[in-house]
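Practice problem: predict the structure.
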Amino acid sequence: MHRLAENVMHFGRVLRTAGVPVGTDRIQLALQALQVAGLQSRADFRATLAACLLDRHEHRAMFDQAFDLYWRDPDLAGRMMQMLLPQVQANDANAPPPPPENRRLGEAFSVGAPPRPQAPPPPERIEIEATLTFSERELLQRADFDTMSADEWLQAKHALRRLKPLFEPITTRRTKPAAHPGRADWRATMRDMARHGGELLKPQWRAPRQRPAPLVVLADISGSMSRYSRMLLHFTHTLGRADVRVESFVFGTRLTRTTHLLRQRDPDFAVAQVVRAVQDWSGGTRISACLHEFNQRWARRTLGGRATVLLVTDGLEHGHTEALRFEMERLHKSCRRLVWLNPLLRWQGFEPKAAGIRTMLPHVDRFVPAHNLESLEQLTRLLASDTPARPH
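Answer:
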């Protein structure tokens, strides 16, 4: 039983490294449940671990692949008591790698593996070094945030920092001096006449002042959205460095304002502050309740009818959708543009079949993906345009 406990703990660390939230309490619960369920059946063993280690359905695919790679003994019932095979195979250099769509899982299996002997370095040469070739950069642009390796995730964050967003200019009631004829500036014209002995030499003009449209980000941080929302927070931090007013909120089971947390200069430190401050990160989601709180408490302060709202969520709302319809309609009427960023659009055959998605779609101006760097670059071009389009 001691070796079983060691391997279950190691399996839990693999899942945690791969992005599945597995705490020590769940590992202890799994060990207690295995003492009751027994080890006679591989299917029962898998079901017991899944019931104890998982709390969200979207983590099941990652669990199944990790289970098949880790517990690869075809006669689990006969050899389970030895419990040496999984530990050996977990660090086997000759074992086939996990599927490419889960490279994060492959890195999780390599944690704790003995370092391979390094070949002697080649003789030093003077070369032109490029951090990313064109093909590598193109692959990084299209890599899904949810399946990025740790190195790709780091490169993606650096790419976001180099992004130079542009924003749609909106006309304000204030005016500024202008060189071309338009609205007459009588005060400046009289001052110019006084300097020239009362002679009118050149009329002075004024034109409406323009400023970037304010931006409000509402990001879903539930379990199915946490990795995408983390990258979107880095994107929001990049937007905040531009000359534009950006307000940011995150929501799961409750709404939390994060504008002041993202004002830190270091984006990694700023996002880490948000994760620490939010109590419901990677938890459940209550979209209609959180939108209701935003509409009641924050909409009048932050929108003013001129703001663009970026709503980042998969739209998988449970329960009745009538309240969600009302809150979406109210949010849409309170802002200038409502852009819905949904990672589910990464699937080519996506259809809005979920009730929550069908309820929200009629009340947005744009329905766009937000799952890789390419989609975020397209979003920056959308923010710079002034032609809202009908949803897909």
